[in-house]
Fold this protein.
Amino acid sequence: MEFKDILKEKASFINKQLDRFVPNCIPEELSNAMRYSLEAGGKRIRPILVIESAKAVKEDVNVEDFIDIAISTEFIHTYSLIHDDLPAMDDDDLRRGKPTCHKVFGEAIAILAGDGLLTYAFEVISNNKKLSAEKIVKVINILSHNVGIYGMVGGQAADILPNFKDVEFIHLNKTAKFLSACCQIGGVLADATEEEILKLKNYGINIGLAFQIWDDILDEIGDEEKAGKRLHKDKDKNKITYPSLYGLEKSIQIAKDCVEKAKNEIRDLKKPEFLIKLAKYIISREV
Amino acid sequence: MEFKDILKEKASFINKQLDRFVPNCIPEELSNAMRYSLEAGGKRIRPILVIESAKAVKEDVNVEDFIDIAISTEFIHTYSLIHDDLPAMDDDDLRRGKPTCHKVFGEAIAILAGDGLLTYAFEVISNNKKLSAEKIVKVINILSHNVGIYGMVGGQAADILPNFKDVEFIHLNKTAKFLSACCQIGGVLADATEEEILKLKNYGINIGLAFQIWDDILDEIGDEEKAGKRLHKDKDKNKITYPSLYGLEKSIQIAKDCVEKAKNEIRDLKKPEFLIKLAKYIISREV
């Protein structure tokens, strides 16, 4: 089986689990907007990272004990996409080939659907009754730190400010820290040692950087129809990217180096195979 | 000392404590926007409710053990104001007599400042090292439930939808549940019994409803200059309010009834005096 298909199988498992936790509230417009964006698809890479990082450090993890926590990372990812697509932000009309949330439900409901999904993630995590309170607090701490002002939100703010030129800061904060948080959380859930959690953290940062640099590259050379979204928008907006700074060839080399670092970090874990394959896969994507 | 001045003194204590936790991040535009809105003033009623609810059930509470948690409720309140004021939502240019966040920093940074404050609240709470993990999880659960899709976010969504006509649902969810959550959290922090927490919960719901109905009334009869914000906007927008549904006199009676219910709920707690005075104060406000 190709790794691409293994990933698809895992994403389809996540989609089934997601159904159990999709929020349902009043007013129904809010519910519909959240569901619309959650069900728009995607690779579900964050929940997969939580589960696979746990499996990398411990053989007999019971995924059912923390599936709610894994799914919550997808709530947060979806909130970030909804807000990023808003007219005041990246102003995107299409996401995964479908109209963006605000295009369908209006800006106000889209803002609230994002706020709602972010808050709901913490509600779902704090509702978990199977894990110790110590683990839950640690998970919430890692997650809120890395998706907040010292992570994703800070990275997104830097990304939209025209005078902010540090592209590594942007990629690290906007993308890599959240992916890294998912890896760390998997470690915490599987009773990893501090040393193992640090390895997972570094692995996550490096695949995150590789992922985002590769996205920059695909944005420059990819096929818009295959991608299901507008490409070349970085160039259109005069954004600084890795290819614009270093050229295509050097950018590819930097992404490859990140993948090497990521693999080296975790190769001593008990079962690192999946994470190693994932790291390699990131820089083989074609759209 | 008049109760109004007692409240001012407590708000000034909260303002001093807030300084210790004001977030500071890169990019500085994001930091500045969060600080601007946090320092725009306000009654700080939510942190006060956390602290006073704890004191109502237990004589020797150590406020320093949970001041971070109390302050976090103000982060969440401030995020909700920033997002509510956005052009796509209530479209307000002034808040407490000052230009709103998006007027000063632009819409994109305002959206992110809100997202950042919301996430930072959970980071600060999960950073607390003085309380048991069990208490922290309970606090996060109560808070996220009541400010999310089953509370404040749901209420705000209902409020902006022109076809949503249930004003009690809106007030209950948009305002009362968050205030009630603060009271419950105070109880949890002070080791209240389940019964005491239920009393605090009901107290909070009732003062919340009274507060919002009174705001409806003041929006109709208040003085715009004194209030430091645009009034009569409910009428301008053809929003359903208590006065528009029941008339002024009956609305005042409903608010008074809520205050009576609130007082009755908590009069058997160990030290209910402050909470009783606060309930009465809510329907004596003049702007």
Chain B touches chain A through 52 residues (CB under 8 Å). The CA atoms of residues 1 and 273 of chain B lie 14 Å apart. The two ends of chain B are 20 Å apart (CA to CA).
